[in-house]
Design goal:
The protein is of the alpha+beta class. 61% of the residues lie in helices and 9% in strands.
């Protein structure tokens, strides 16, 4: 729990970032993807599949909102049961904000008309809807969704939803998050294709566009949030190295390494504190160092891969590869 005024302001700022990111995700879904039924996976993809069976246009909006609302709650409860309280707390704000944001863009007077007009414009531009219309919707929808997810990550949260299944697959099946996300979203796209294509041959184009949108979204998340690398190594020279080390061990549950050093100019004995951490912990460490010692000398290095306790296993033992045999085993 935050104790000082500064900590409270930081906590509030992070919550605001999560809410802003969630609203960007909802706008990308409602304003660009949903009007042309572009199925890029996620809750939006599930809602698009379900509402396709509704003939009344007015009811389609209601059904879309209901599916997003119910699915958000269900996935949050699944995350609480199978992933744990920490994940549930991180996704609580977004799990509440996403249905609210979706309702805001689909039912709020004035705003709903703007998003509806945008969707109609995407459908009718040129001789639309053509492949160009679908591609345009997919790209811009993917950008808004990707940027929104990245902003929620910066706020220390997660968008929840089908991300819950991603974390479950990582925890129990040892599948990398990016691969798990691809499997989940790809499955939603394929399911939609199999269910709806026999009754509507035109549904192939939205599904193919959804793959493009999913790719654009992933690129935005990777390069806007931190970059294409998965982990960081940081070397810290600070008089407060003991406090920083304690924070890393107690709060982040990461190990630290102390490297004796001597200043080349001053000749003073110093300690280099080395830490390796995941990209999700980048802001926490950087914020803490800035608070406790703004004059600390810190270098951050992106790593291609990290193996060992708390990171990847040295053995390749996930479901995509055969488990390595011990020496002498036949």
């Amino acid at each position: 729990m935050p104790k000082t005024k500064k900590e409270w302001l930081l906590a509030i700022a992070k919550i605001v970032l999560v809410i802003v990111g969630t609203f960007l995700v909802a706008f990308g879904n409602v304003g660009f993807l949903a009007p042309l039924d572009v199925n890029a996976g996620g809750l939006n993809g599930i809602a698009i599949i379900v509402r396709h069976f509704i003939n009344d246009e007015g009811m389609k909006v209601l059904v879309y909102n209901l599916v997003v609302d119910i699915a958000a709650v269900v996935f949050w409860l699944i995350g609480l049961l199978f992933v744990g309280k920490e994940f549930a707390i991180k996704t609580l704000v977004a799990s509440i904000a996403l249905p609210v944001a979706t309702l805001f863009f689909t039912a709020c007077p004035g705003v709903a008309k703007i998003t509806a007009d945008l969707g109609e414009l995407l459908k009718t531009t040129g001789n639309g809807p053509t492949a160009g219309n679908y591609l345009l919707s997919a790209i811009f929808g993917g950008v808004f969704v990707g940027v929104g997810v990245a902003v929620t990550f910066v706020g220390g949260g997660s968008t929840g939803g089908v991300d819950t299944l991603v974390f479950i697959m990582e925890k129990y099946l040892k599948i990398k998050q990016s691969i798990a996300a691809f499997i989940i979203d790809g499955s939603i796209i394929i399911i939609g294709l199999c269910i709806l294509l026999p009754s509507d041959t035109l549904f192939l184009l939205p599904c193919l566009s959804g793959i493009v949108s999913s790719f654009v979204s992933s690129v935005c998340i990777e390069f806007i949030y931190i970059g294409s690398q998965s982990s960081y190594q940081v070397d810290i020279i600070s008089s407060k190295w003991e406090e920083i080390s304690r924070f890393v061990q107690d709060e982040l549950e990461r190990g630290t390494t102390l490297i004796p050093a001597r200043g080349g100019f001053s000749g003073e004995d110093k300690v280099i504190l080395r830490i390796v951490f995941s990209k999700r912990e980048y802001n926490k460490i950087r914020t803490f160092i800035a608070q406790i010692d703004p004059k600390a000398f810190v270098t951050y290095t992106r790593t291609n891969a990290v193996f060992g306790e708390g990171f990847k296993s040295h053995k390749v033992d996930n479901i995509f590869t055969k488990k390595e045999k011990d020496d002498g085993e036949k």
